[in-house]
Amino acid sequence: MGSVRGEPSDRIQVAVRSDASALRWYALGRVISRVILRLFFRMTITSGERIPSSGPLVVVANHESLLDAFVVAAVLKDRYVTFLSAPWLYSVPVVGWVLRSIGALPAYTEGSDVSTPREAIRVLEKGGTVVVFPEGGISRNQLYGGAVFFAGKAGAPLIPLRITGTKKALPLGRWWPSLYTRIEVTVGEPIPASQLCPPGTPTKVAVAQGRELLTELLAHE
After folding, report:
1. Between vectors from CA 85 to CA 156 and to CA 60, what angle results, nearest 5°?
2. Which CATH number belongs to the domain containing residue 51 in this structure?
3. What is the pLDDT along the chain (221 residues), one digit of tens a residue?
4. 35 within a domain of the structure (yes/no)
5. In the 3-class helix/strand/coil scheme, how is the chain assigned residue by residue?
6. What span, in angstroms and rounded, lies between the C-alpha atoms of 161 and 217?
7. Which domain holds residue 44?
8. Does 144 fall in a domain?
9. Does residue 3 fall inside a structural domain?
10. Quick check: is 180 in a domain?
């Protein structure tokens, strides 16, 4: 986990939304995102069949642009997704409202908060999907191990998404994308929780080893 631009002094109250209104808005936004990404960014998805159709799932993806969340939502077209988002985004007009409406969880620095991990694990135990950008921000040089921790605690598989093209389409600092820039998504093989966190392995050791695996899976080509 982790955040960009520091963290606010007041903790953001987390709440998992599951009401019909939130589901409808999320579904509509996902369809619109998918259409726009297909038409204007020629988005292609490789090995999309690897995404399980049901059951708990932790999804990790590299993070190079504000477009990445829309890409992930479009790729996971059959799932309602709970995102972990940087706390500062909740104070941005409209964006903060959207994040709260869809039940996104604020991602604080590892070890500094227990409510978000608890809610994320709860989502997974109910068969939901949690999306983590383990870099903790856009184009950062380290990965956090929160996704591995969630998968291990909830017994959920983890699946990596490698996204390319979004940095060119909408680099950090710009608010209007370069249309017709190709975006490509490669879906990795699902990793069972038992492989990420083998029985008897201390949690800290499993998370550290899992973080190294994620670094390799999401590395730039």
Report:
1. 35
2. 3.40.1130.10
3. 433 344 443 444 444 445 566 677 788 888 999 999 999 999 999 999 999 989 999 999 999 998 999 999 999 988 989 999 877 778 877 777 778 878 888 876 655 566 888 999 999 999 999 999 998 778 777 788 889 999 999 999 999 999 999 999 999 888 899 999 999 999 999 999 999 888 888 989 999 999 888 888 887 54
4. yes
5. CCCCCCCCCCCCCCCCCCCHHHHHHHHHHHHHHHHHHHHHHCCEEECHHHCCCCCCEEEEECCCCCCHHHHHHHHCCCCCEEEEECHHHHHCCCHHHHHHHCCCEECCCCCCCCHHHHHHHHHHHCCCEEEECCCCCCCCCCCCCHHHHHHHHHCCCEEEEEEECHHHHCCCCCCCCCCCCCCEEEECCCECHHHHCCCCCCHHHHHHHHHHHHHHHCCCC
6. 9
7. 20-217
8. yes
9. no
10. yes
Task: Show the tokens assigned to 43.
Answer: 């988005």
Residues in the chain: 221
